[in-house]
Every structure is written in C-alpha cells, then in structure tokens.
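Intended use. Records such as the glutaryl-CoA dehydrogenase (ETF) entry shown here are meant for training and evaluating sequence-to-structure methods. They are not intended to support clinical decisions.
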Amino acid sequence: MTSDARRDPDDIDALRAASDVLGIDELLSDEERATRTRVRAFVDAEIRPGIGDWFDRGHFPAELAPKLGALGVLGMNLDGYGCPSRSSVEYGLAALELEAGDSGIRTFVSVQGSLAMGSIHRWGSDEQRQEWLPRMARGEVIGSFGLTEPGAGSDPSAMRTYARRNGEDWILTGSKRWIGLASIAQLTVVWAQTDDGVRGFLVPTDAPGFHVKQLERKGSMRASIQTELHFDAVRLPASALLPDARGLRGPFSALTEARYGIVWGVMGAARDSYEAALRYSLAREQFGRPIAAFQLTQQKLVDMVVELQKGALLALHLGRRKDAGTLDPVQISLGKLSNVREAIAIAREARTILGGNGVLLEHSPIRHAANLESVRTYEGTDEVHTLILGQHLTGIPAFR
C-alpha cells in the first residue's frame, strides 16, 4: 500500500527535518542551535540575494567584513581581546551555514579568524594581541596569511622568502602566492626563513616594498580574493616579529584550525546543493510526474543524504573532541579528506538532477562544485592528507 504525500518544495524546515534521518539535530544544545539559527538568518539576508552576481562578476563584497564582525564569527572560538569566545562546535556550525551561502565567504572568515587572528592570538606578544585582535574581531581591520609560495605549496619547508637582521630591524625579501584577502587587508602574517629557522612577522600591507597582485580569471572561488605578494626589501621593526613562533609549528597550528573549519564548512555547500536538487525535483515535472517520483532521482537524493549525515556526524565528533582538548591533527586530516571529497560528489550529483538548468548561476550546485575544487586543494591537498594518514597508520613518512 502506498500513499502520495509529496513534500512541499517551499517548506524548507520540513525538508530539513526529513533529511535529518539520524536525528543529529537532537545532539546539539539549545545554545548551539541558536548560534546556527542566527548565522543561517544572516546568510539568508546578506549573502544569498547577491552571491550569484558576485560569483559571476568575480567580486568579493568587502562591506560584509564589519557585518560579520557584528555577527560574532571573526575569531569566533578565540578567547579574550574582544574575541567572541564561543565553542569549537558553535564555530563549526557557523562555518557550515556560511559555506551554505558560499565557500568564498566562509574562506574570508577562516583566513581572518583561524589563520591571521589565530596566529596572533597563539604566537604573538600581549602588545600585538591588544593592538590587532579587537579591531580584527570587529572587522575593522582585515588580515591575511602569507605561507604558500610560487614554488612551495604542499612543501612549505621549501619556502624561499627570507628575513635577515639589519641592526634592530628585519629586511624581508621574497614572494608568496595564493594568499587570500591581501589586496584589501591592512595586515599580513608572513612566514619566512631566517638564520634561526622559520619565523612569523606582522607586515602592514602599506609598508614600502610590499607589492600585491590580485589573481584574476579564476573558474572557482570567484566571490573571494586570492593574491600574489612580493617583498622588495621590506623593512620591519623588531616589534613585527611573532615572539613565540619558531619553526613550521607556527603556521601548521594555524592550518590545523583552518582545516577544522573546512570539515564543517563543506557540509554546508553540500547541504545547500542537495536542498536545491530536492526542491527542484519536487517541483519539476517530466512525463506527467515530478522527477522526484522516479527511482533514479530518489537514489541520487538518498545517496546524498547518507553522505551528508555521515559528514555531519564526523564534524560534530571532531568538534566535541576539540572542545574537550582531545583532538589530534591526524583526525582533522581524516575529516578534511573525507568531507571535502564527499561534498564535491554531492554538488556534482545535485547538478545532474537540475539538468540543463543546473548550469545557470540562479541555482547553487554548479557554483558550489566549482568552489569545492579550490577547497579540496587549499589547506592540504587530498594527497597531503592521505600521506599524513598513511604515516599515522604505518609509521613511515612517505613525503620524500
């Protein structure tokens, strides 16, 4: 016996409730759900109306920075110095909702909060924290993070940017590439080789000899900013040095934080792609029936929800461990590798349900699929995270 109680494609709350097959929502506290609701409302009001146009024009809406500061998502899980001091799970939920809007917007929050602010918070002096973090948390100052170089992506130990002593000052020379936000930032955290190993420096973007070139003609992350930096004997005072960061441990700690946000964020892009496909399949009719009534369409929807539920549980598990102080970086590598890989598959499959209409930017899956190709690459490629896990399993480093 069957019944026809077709779900309303416009009742998004009912669709989301039905899609939470495992009842994951029940695992969240009231405070966590309130944070999610607040960020989701911001995305609906401030990001969804403009994102298709921003992506099409290759435009990052910098005017969102103070609004995101007021929302409390910049340096969200950092303590003190004007930072929001929220839990890791709340930050994860915020990252998920922001990336449901667009990966580029979530990337801004990650570069600002996890990479730039996180480096200053963990490795800076109290004076540096007092000077920069409150304004960055409000979105009044934008920061960027300079690690990757034209010839050193997956192997940051091969960086050639160099800082040498000159009296009490430092002279910075070299280049960085694929650096988010630098063309609109006031401050960049730059990692450079020194006679004492890798060190971190706070470099004002208006310093003489600091040159920024914005990377154009991208097929992905178009509502985001990526740049190339050139340092032509940039003179920095002794106070620019992050005093507590020595070696690659400094930048790697920031990358770990950013990777954690990705584990959650990509599930937002995947969920939005799935929901777009589900709503479309309920409304679109072919052969006298909604395409949601066909077995092949239902198989695609089911496969997407299975991976969404698994990915959400994985992200929540890592978040709980992070809040408990028991999270290991190798666990983040597993999460980043798995969730990004599945998110791309979901976005691509969702696009097929939309047929030819799916290539139009009024529908989100193709934009998410394109963006996720970048997310798959940055903060560690699939290959890098595979080798991190391989070393964990075998005890043998296979990087060289």
